[in-house]
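I'm stuck. Protein, please.
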Amino acid sequence: MAFIECEKLNFSYPYADDKSNGFALHDIDFSLEQGDFLLICGTSGSGKSTLLRLLKPGISPNGRLDGKIIYAGKFLNDLPKTASAAEIGYVFQDPNAAYVTEKVYSELAFLPQNLGLSPETIELRIAEISAFFGLESIIGSDICNLSGGQKQLVNLAAVMTAYPKLLILDEPTSQLDPISAERFCEIVLRIQREMGTTIIVSEHNTEHFFNFADKILHLENGRQLAFDTPSKFVKNAANHDFLPTSAKLFSSFKLDNCPAFTTSSAMDFVRNHYKKDASEQFNDDKNHLNGDAVKVKNAYFSYTRRGKDVIDGLDFNADFGRIHAICGANGSGKTTLFKLISGLKTLRDGKIYIDGKRISSYKSGALYRNLIASLPQDPHDIFICESVKEDISASPDGEKNDFETVKTLCKRLNIFENLLDLHPYDLSGGEIQRAALVKLLLLDPKILLLDEPTKGLDKQCKRQLSSLLKELAAEGKAIIFITHDIDFIAETADDVTLIFGGKAVSSLPVRQFIMQNSVYTSAASRIGRGYFDKTMTDSELISSAVSRKNERGDGDE
């Protein structure tokens, strides 16, 4: 008997919308053996998070459930609460969502203490898990002082102190920088290989996990479109949005025997089938931005009077009519910079100009009168009403926004009308992100600040967002966004600034930035480097590879 079985699983929320005839999940049917790795993909709102929560008693959503969920030969709902807490671990998308204590040590101790384990056993488990995760240096630290990558590792480590048989992860890398995401994924793979833990991961970015998954489950509108091995999934995929760059490349050549779906395998493929290009040379000239929208000069800021400077001599310029991306490691100062630009925090030293005027010259509230609108990391923070419709229909002056304008913006961001009647907390991560953008755009700001705008968004929604931001920039607005999503930067940005240690260490036009970096770069650029040096996106890589193959007839040297 399989370790996990879902048989004809149907689920509907109490408010039952029109997805799949009232079902949030409809006829879900799959099974996993103990130690398997399942990767779940699908568009935002397809039912991924709902399915994951149904597999974890205690956080299962309210609603009508039909069908069977079998865990280790028994009905899942018959599993005792203590066994459920110990045997099924769950890691949330937001690193801040799961913390119940203030210190790393106490966070690791919390679950085994509540399971009633002895102090000696708890001490042993903390020591073992800390060593496994490399947390010894931060074991006594305050969680609030950790980077995003460290917080997510502590989240995972806290779950693993119970030695779960099943580990569920919901978009675990969505808020991590590229290096932190890579380290996190390596740890997850070690857990599966060395501990024999069954892993279920939901991810929009499949680059890290695709090749290592035993099975791929594809959901769309609550229905199961595919449950297959990675190789068969690639061969039969009607929608390539959920494929990593390597798989897209191999699929375009319709190879019968694909190598591993990794960046390195794709690089080997390119080396074996193409001759080197004459490398494109970039000079070191900056993009000479004037800073007519935002200019930050020699800025310093710390959160405490004698604390370390989080912003440490930073210079930053952004122009109207351009899209400017900001990237860097978790904790490097990106979000703090946004707080300074939006007037939520005040510099210790330095100058900030907004639309040509010192920020200090704006009276209270003036920055937000059609000048600046800001999307926070948690979009729920800007919703205060009982329904999405009520919230986005209200303007700051107390009047009602024109609902036809609201509907037009919702359509541009792929928000269905039936979602507008829901409470903001009933939306998926991608849905609430898009709804928050609608609310901001109704303000018609000249400068738009977006902190992690692609969090929770699938590839289709990212394309729609990219197109919308380009339209807004063409209208003369300044768009500045923080992201760890390098592929979105490549598709969308005009300029990129890399922040490290509170300083802007690089500020360049997007193509120059992507081409000259090894970590903060796209998978397409890594694969094509030296052979297709002008490629920056998946579509550019595949187009270049196919056209060069056709020129030679067979693609072989």
